[in-house]
Design brief:
The protein is of the alpha/beta class. It has helices at residues 9-28, 41-48, 97-107, 134-137, 158-161, 177-184, and strands at residues 2-5, 31-35, 58-62, 64-66, 86-88, 114-117, 142-148, 151-156, 167-171, 200-204.
Length: 212
Amino acid sequence: MDLRVSDEPAVMAAKTIARRLRDAHRRRGAASLALSGGGTAPAMIEAMLVERLAWEALTVWQVDERVAPDGDADRNALQLERLPCRVRLMPVTAVDLRAAAARYARSLPERFDVVHLGVGDDGHTASWPPGNRDVLVSDRPVETVPPFNGRARMTLTPRVVNTARARVVLATGAAKRAVIARWLGGDGSLPIGTVRRTATTVVLDPAAAPRG
């Protein structure tokens, strides 16, 4: 695991992702990225927009999405509207969510070049709820998740996240410090603890960084 602390964490995370995507394009002629939502994602996405990328060769998928109507303020999809590349949104307005999740799974690349993740105050990442092991041990690439924090969800599973070539975790704010310390200390009870450490870069601001 590569741990970085920065006064501009969104910029650092964006540059880390961009470097991986440029390498993927150079090696394979295309690049794939899965983006999470959450409070830290918009600033990181804005920072990515000024990066030198082969946007025409990049496809972006969602790591997770809330089950809500199109255009609803709860939707992570709204954060992706400015991306000048192909974006494959999770079909969370489908009547049969389980069948829609299976269709989305068939659209995924064999292996993502980069997966971006956040961390909740409760230790969740993607939409892997604390106390719910079903999604963590699922052999499906995409799962539906019962409501937590007010919404049912659709999410990539650890099976997909952990087989990516790289992961970038971005977390900021003092409210995250305790849970980040638990995760980095090896607390396997947290959903974020399921994330593979090899080829994972963690970007924090000083407030979120564990002390000592």
